[in-house]
Each structure stands twice: as C-alpha cells, then as structure tokens.
Design a protein that fits this description.
The protein is mainly alpha-helical. The protein has two helices and no strands.
C-alpha cells in the first residue's frame, strides 16, 4: 500500500548546514520552549513552527550581515 499523504506546504525548509552549527539544536529548543501559545495541540504546534521559522530567519539575517561586514569591511581598508 503505497499511498502518498499530502501534508500541505512545508512549514519551512531546513538546510543541512544548519545541523553542522553547534548551537542550532539548542537555539531551536530554547525558542520552542519560550513560546506561549494557547489552543488545541495542532494549533499550538503550527503556531510554534511559524515562530521558530521567524527566529531562524532572524539568526540567518544576522549571520549574513556579519559575513558581509567582515568581507566588505576588510576590503574597504585597502
């Protein structure tokens, strides 16, 4: 029985490189546990995924900004 279940759109994409980051799992756990959402279990789960997604975006944007500053800041000193 090879039925394919359509779970809908993925809540967010996960990049394999995130798992190489030492603090990734800890950051996700801390974020997940810090969110206070009320409602049915499925609603709480969905909302927490959305909030974790926002946190991951913030972290990635910060890292990109830091990388750009490092790369372009160093080249501007010539």
């Amino acid at each position: 029985m090879n039925s394919i279940i359509d779970w809908g759109p993925k809540p967010f994409r996960v990049l394999n490189c995130w798992f190489m980051e030492n603090s990734f799992k800890e950051m996700v756990e801390q974020s997940w546990n810090s969110f206070q959402v009320q409602g049915r279990a499925s609603f709480v789960f969905k909302e927490k995924l959305k909030l974790v997604k926002k946190e991951l975006k913030k972290v990635e944007q910060l890292k990109v900004c830091q990388l750009a500053t490092t790369m372009f800041g160093a080249s501007g000193k010539d």
